[in-house]
Write a structure and sequence with these properties.
The structure is a single chain. By secondary structure, the chain is an alpha+beta fold. Helix content is 37%, strand content 21%. The protein contains 15 helices and 16 strands. α12 links the parallel β12 and β13. The longest helix is centred in the first third of the chain and has 20 residues. It is elongated and about 90 Å long. It binds histidyl-adenosine monophosphate. The site of histidyl-adenosine monophosphate has 25 residues, from β6, β10, β11 and α11.
């Protein structure tokens, strides 16, 4: 009986997994250049953490969380995102106490009970940054620059950066204005948009329903509701982005699906991805730390969807030529040669190369075929004759040429010939 994997989960294999690993490496390399340090937080947290931070009325909390009771009767949730857990960890471990700005980055799986489709999964991966302690608009701009450099590093282009501000308290007034605008046409809204109207009117701006979109054409813009302070902050972010030469669009329809945002919000999308095209989402959350019981501390960050970045890389063919799994394949002929071949194999590994040999008793021809299939640079052949001479035969797989080398110099000879960066 086959037991298939749960809906919305994936087995990460081959090129997809290689793309994931490249993305994770690029993330740590770029994020550390911006002064972020790694953090790992639990994959499950108390349900209350997300209810209080992401917000009870959001799609994530109201219908997408994997919440369960453990054997001790506690309500636990598989984390749907990383900001809440990082903020909790920062408070709980006293990382914010010295009043310095602190920067953390994380990578790992997140869980949301969404309808699976290309680019949308129930278990998906994010890598993200969170910066606590500064409300300087330059940090907002830096956060966007960090995301941009990260995408550049992966050759993901062109991307579209959309920027907005949801203000701090202003979005409630704005939500009321939006509702007032739509009220006369309430009956024409679809069932999902009716629910949004009642529970979280800002989410109407994300509606895919053409009817709702038309009704929203002349709707008020959140930018007209911003306080002077929020407006000045947004202006300063824009000035810094302009000075750094970042191309972005101001888009008042970006409101994000999580309740903790205050002020700056942004999303980055890649056109080639189709419906699920947003690869980075983030923004400022100046109330979150206090809401979770810490001292009032401003914060800002973003998370990138690794699954979607990997899709973008394969769509754009920006996955570079992959290096061979095995660089050197050892072929031992006859039982007598085996122990020496085994010793040589390990010398080659100690010299820093990826090497392997056959442990299934296959014939020489079939072993050479394996070397070929694995794209090995060299097959090293060790039979009775070679053993008697104290030599090995080095066969270069690309052109079939062969040379002999003394056994105790073979590893060093290979080290010189096998390209180090492959
Ligand atoms: P988010 O917009 O919910 O924000 O998620 C960020 C990114 O995760 C999305 O842009 C998308 O690329 C990816 N993502 C989300 N859901 C899925 C899914 N079901 N399948 C595949 N990829 C998905 C947050 O999570 C915030 N914590 C971001 C943040 C950090 N804001 C401030 N700091």
């Amino acid at each position: 009986m086959n037991i298939p994997r749960p809906r919305g989960t994936r087995d990460l294999l081959h090129e997809t997994l290689r793309a994931f690993l490249r993305i994770e490496n690029a993330a740590s390399s770029v994020f550390e250049r911006f002064g972020y340090q790694p953090i790992r937080i639990p994959i499950f947290e108390r349900a209350e953490l997300f209810i209080r931070s992401v917000g009870e009325e959001t799609d994530i909390v109201s219908k997408e969380m994997y919440t369960f009771q453990d054997r001790g009767g506690r309500d636990l949730t598989l984390r749907p995102e990383g900001t809440a857990g990082t903020a909790r960890a920062a408070i709980e471990n006293g990382l914010l106490s010295r009043g310095e700005a602190r920067k953390f980055y994380y990578t790992g799986p997140m869980f949301r009970y969404e309808r699976p489709q290309a680019g949308r999964y129930r278990e998906f991966w994010q890598t993200g940054i969170e910066s606590f302690g500064s409300n300087d608009p330059l940090i907002d701009a830096e956060t966007i620059l960090c995301a941009q450099l990260f995408l550049d590093e992966l050759n993901i282009a062109p991307v579209r950066i959309r920027l907005n501000s949801v203000g701090s308290g202003e979005r409630h007034t704005y939500a009321d204005a939006l509702k007032q605008h739509l009220q006369p046409n309430f009956e024409n809204l679809g069932p999902q948009d009716k629910a949004r109207f009642e529970n979280n009117a800002l989410r109407l701006l994300d509606s895919k329903d053409p009817n709702t979109k038309r009704m929203l054409e002349n709707a008020p813009s959140i930018l007209d509701f911003l306080s002077d302070e929020s407006r000045a902050h947004l202006d300063a972010v824009q000035n810094a982005l302009d000075a750094a030469g970042v191309k972005y669009q101001l888009d008042p329809s970006i409101v994000r699906g999580l309740d903790y945002y205050t002020g700056t919000v942004f999303e980055i999308s890649v056109d080639s991805l189709g419906a699920q095209d947003v690869v980075v989402g983030g923004g400022r959350y100046n109330g979150l730390i206090e809401q979770l019981g810490g001292k009032p501390t401003p914060g800002i960050g973003f998370a990138a969807g690794i699954d979607r970045l990997a899709l973008a890389m394969s769509a754009q063919d920006s996955l570079e030529e992959t290096s061979p799994l095995i660089q050197v394949w050892i072929v031992a002929i006859g039982e007598e040669a085996k122990p020496r071949a085994f010793a040589l194999l390990n010398e080659i590994r100690r010299a820093g190369m990826r090497a392997d040999m056959d442990y299934q008793g296959r014939g020489v021809r079939s072993q050479l075929r394996t070397a070929d299939r694995l794209n090995a640079h060299y097959a090293v052949i060790l039979g009775e004759d070679e053993l008697a001479r104290g030599e090995a035969t080095l066969k270069k797989m690309s052109d079939g040429t062969q040379e002999s080398a003394p056994l105790d110099e073979t590893a060093a000879r290979l080290r010189q010939s096998v390209p180090t960066n492959t």
